Backbone:
């Protein structure tokens, strides 16, 4: 069966798919035993603590599924630790491993869009002509942003603290279009980040990708005098960016800029023939599917403190 869209996938390890909404993670033969051994438990104690027997809404058969915390109220897998650490990752169920290439996602537009809304690692393949037009309009929008910022006259003393997220106490978010544009303006894999979570283009205290930097960078300054007006401007221009995406038919996604860059750079390498890691691709008929899948989780400003 044809997929609703060709897409590539690279896991960001964000944990959204394990905590986004109530659902089922179906278990196959032998998986309870492997997960129990991973946690140093007996299969009986693992079942009592982490497994529930539920009715498959499609077949009506009784099946085993992983439990969720709070009896499903939060949609958070009981085996998820912290924000994004799976305690049985190496022995997780095949149902988990198959996400987002489940048949229920690949062949249903509503389910696909719900998955894409919660998972920043799903990237729809964009036609070259759509990219070219969207990039041109994004450049024009950036010029409008830069002109506004110049009129606001914020002061930058080039300390670079705003780019050292772990020191500034915030994170940089961007759209997929912005990440794609940055990579296009600065070809090749981004440099290795100087610190975990930091923008890879921040090298030696300076931005090495100013031409392709996203909206969040362009509207953030340490100058308290202009903080409020630039925060409002960011939301205004982000709305215009969303309209641009919709009008051009550019697949929308929003996430941490370093994560988006890493995922998209990895996919670019995959397209060039370097396969491996957590990156996979589905064409109009997909390359990986789980035909026995009922969606588990998920259900479904640029600089965030």
Residues:
């Amino acid at each position: 069966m044809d997929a609703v869209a060709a897409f590539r996938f690279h896991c960001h390890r964000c944990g959204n798919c394990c905590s986004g909404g109530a659902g089922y993670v179906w278990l196959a033969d032998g998986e309870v035993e492997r997960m129990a051994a991973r946690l140093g438990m007996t299969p009986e104690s693992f079942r009592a603590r982490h497994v529930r027997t539920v009715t498959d809404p499609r077949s009506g058969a009784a099946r085993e599924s992983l439990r969720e915390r709070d009896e499903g109220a939060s949609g958070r897998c009981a085996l998820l630790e912290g924000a994004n650490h799976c305690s049985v990752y190496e022995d997780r169920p095949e149902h988990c491993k198959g996400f987002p290439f489940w048949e229920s996602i690949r062949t249903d537009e509503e389910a696909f869009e719900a998955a894409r809304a919660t998972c920043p690692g799903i990237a729809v393949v964009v036609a070259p002509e759509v990219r070219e037009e969207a990039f041109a309009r994004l450049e024009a929008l950036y010029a409008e942003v830069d002109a506004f910022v110049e009129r606001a006259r914020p002061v930058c003393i080039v300390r670079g603290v705003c780019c050292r997220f772990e020191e500034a106490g915030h994170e940089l978010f961007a759209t997929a279009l912005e990440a794609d544009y940055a990579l296009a303006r600065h070809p090749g894999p981004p440099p290795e980040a100087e610190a975990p979570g930091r923008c890879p283009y921040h090298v030696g205290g300076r931005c090495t990708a100013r031409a392709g930097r996203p909206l969040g960078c362009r509207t953030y300054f340490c100058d308290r005098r202009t903080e409020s007006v630039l925060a409002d401007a960011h939301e205004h221009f982000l709305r215009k960016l969303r309209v641009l995406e919709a009008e051009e038919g550019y697949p929308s996604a929003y996430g941490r800029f370093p994560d988006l860059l890493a995922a998209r750079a990895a996919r670019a390498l995959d397209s060039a023939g370097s396969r491996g890691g957590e990156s996979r691709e589905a064409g109009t008929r997909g390359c990986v599917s789980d035909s026995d899948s009922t969606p588990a989780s998920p259900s479904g400003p640029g600089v965030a403190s």
About this structure: The first strand starts at residue 7 and ends at 10. Residues 271-278, 284-301 have pLDDT under 50 and may be disordered. The first helix runs from residue 31 to 38.
